[in-house]
Amino acid sequence: MHWLTAAVSLDDVRRKLYVEDDQGRLAIGAAAFAALWSETPGQKLLGRLVTMPVIAVVGRWLYDGFAAVLYGWNRHKKRW
Hints:
The protein contains four helices and two strands, in the order αββααα. By secondary structure, it is mostly helical. The protein has one domain. A two-stranded antiparallel sheet has the order 1-2. The longest helix is centred in the C-terminal third of the chain and has 24 residues. The relative contact order is 0.15.
């Protein structure tokens, strides 16, 4: 899982899901879902599964595509 430490703008948060751990590191997008699932009872296996190399790449690609469409839709609808 890739963690980042950086400032995040409001527009960044509108584009993708961000999760911060206890050390202040950020997981973004599909990695954020993996981080959440790995800490959720009953979902830990799913969290490990989506971090496997091939699945992580496909998951990141699918998430990024969905997030871009959702962001565009919300902007089009003037939700922000």
